[in-house]
Amino acid sequence: MLGLLRLIRARRERSAPEVPGDTFYSRHVSSIIYGANDGIVTTFAIISSAMGASLGTVTIIILGLANLFADGFSMGSSSYLSAKSEHDVQKKQGNGADLDPHEPRVNGAITFGAFVCAGTIPLLPFLLPISMVHPFAISVAATAVAFFVVGGMRSIVSPRSFIVCGLEMLFVGGIAASIAFGIGFGIERLVS
To answer: What are the φ/ψ torsions at residue 133 (nearest 5 degrees)?
Structure first.
């Protein structure tokens, strides 16, 4: 986290914005943002639709954890297969000499890790052993902060500001969460 903050601070202090060179983050930003965003969106969508349908905390925890690991695995393995396919295309075109054979596995692992880590955030208020009066409200706030921070992290490799990148992801994530809550709310009203 300190490294991330240093990069953001250093970027702000420069007169002309530059994208960092060949760093781990710059090479894997796509996998990190894709996995983290999808983890937050899908987990919060499950929580939102379950809350809209008036389902209980135990159901939310079961669905949330199942989503974290099953969808996280699906995202990670899809990232792996996608990167492997890109490598295969490059090799077939004669451009494969400089390719790292481990890169597809690294992309898959990063996508899975980012999905599970970020996707846990909306679920935490339901998982914590302390009794919370309004776990959904806390989940909404935690999710909004997570969307904003993950979105803002894009500013490290983007010419746009942390705030603009953060607000963009918060806006898109908010739309997805609203759709999920509305569907859960509407279906619960239809079937009861």
So the answer is: -70, -40
Per-residue pLDDT of 138-149, as tens digits, reads 999 999 999 999
- Helix-helix angle 24-52:162-191, to 10 degrees: 30
Phi-psi category of 94—alpha, beta or left, where left has phi over 0 and alpha has psi -120 to 50?
Answer: left
- State residue 17's pLDDT score: 42
Start-to-end Cα distance in the chain? 46
Tokens of 131: 């009794």
Residues 6+ apart with CB under 8 A from 116: 39, 68, 69, 72
Instruction: Identify the helix (H) or strand (E) that includes residue 6.
Output: helix 2-13
- Of the candidates 63, 4, 64, the residue with the CA atom closest to the CA atom of residue 40: 64
- The DSSP line for 36-85 is HHHHHHHHHHHHHHHHHTT--HHHHHHHHHHHHHHHHHHHHHHHHHHHHH
pLDDT tens track for 157-174 = 888 999 999 999 999 988
C-alpha span between 26 and 38 (Å, rounded): 19
96 DSSP 8-state letter: -
Question: What pLDDT shows up at residue 5?
Answer: 46
Q: What are phi and psi of 52, to 5 degrees?
A: -60, -30
